[in-house]
Amino acid sequence: MKTIGIGLIGTGYMGKCHALAWTGVAATFGETLRPRLVHLAEVNADLAHTKATEFGFARSSGDWRALIADPEVDVVSVTTPNAFHADMAIAALQAGKHVWCEKPMATALADAARMRETARASGRIAVLGYNYIQNPTVRQIEALIAGGAIGTVNHIRIEMDEDFMADAEAPFNWKNEAASGYGALDDFAVHPLSLMTRFLSLPSEVLADMSRPVASRPLADGSRRAVETHDIANVLLRFPGGASGVLTANRAAWGRKGRIFVQIFGSAGTLHFDQERGNEFNLYLAKGDPATQGFRTVLLGPQHAPYDRFIPAPGHGLGFNDLKVIEAHELIRALNGDADARVIDFETGLAIEGCVHAMAKSHADGRWTPTGA
Ligand code: NAD
Distance, CA 280 to ligand 1 centroid (Å)? Predict the structure, then answer.
């Protein structure tokens, strides 16, 4: 049985998701290229050792460069705060490793472009953590659109809302620093954009407005620090084929926990789903007796691949970590040379970054702005 050596940098929220995905992917999908948990890196040696023991990695280091120098590491998971992605991903690629880097790609467009160039030059596989495209619901919606079920798509609206920044007294953290990027745009809007690549395309022009509902947040010493990012972004979109769209992102939306509400309107019907209820989608077809027309809700089941790989019973549901397992599987497919692996690579990732930076520019200039897509 062939194996691939895994290196994991960072063990917070996403680091644990990657560790669970690498642990579960072979059992779920029967991989013939089996992950081996080789090396874990954290900010210091003690934390790295503790997490390596918990997650089952063979060795650990308080210096991520030691992980990259490890000849037994074939793939590096980068799950650190945004500002580190470019340096870590580029160093890994230059050392001949494949990379699975969390979104957003980088905080500066020039850094994302360097990542893309380094990936091209290395010939290695380099993909980003856009897990929501892995939801079997999203695959089914794509198939319905491709099959013409709702006719020609003329409008897409996606709202992404969570409330982890709604409390004005929540402590200042790295997501409030300008070094992390723009805020709602690169933290959230990139996810709806990743979905748009599957449903239609990226937008070619954008008109954006951002706002900052909380001006300052408390520090550990009791003082307050001004928030440097925007937690809310509202964006109008124009797509190359003439369709229009709306993208809104809000990290300070009380009551919303993991909402990504997608509506896709076509000439013959409408599809909608919400990631908070990610095991179902809704379809309206504009045909038949108007007296009985209405949305119908379809629950996920084993007929919606790859749901069947997890559980044979319909309606029982997959969760967020399962999307990460599917993402790891698609990365392994890419490593095996499968041209149709369902991944967002650094090429598409850079195009997504182009949209985000165009949105920030539009906000600053107050006008429609081309994205380059
Ligand atoms: P986090 O703060 O929970 O975890 C970050 C981890 O990185 C911490 O354990 C920290 O100690 C470690 N770290 C920081 N600097 C390091 C260094 N120099 N060397 C080694 N380790 C270091 O953050 P998070 O919420 O897990 O976010 C991490 C990344 O994941 C971000 O880029 C974020 O945008 C992305 N993310 C993606 C999703 C998704 O749905 N795909 C969801 C949440 C976060």
Answer: 29
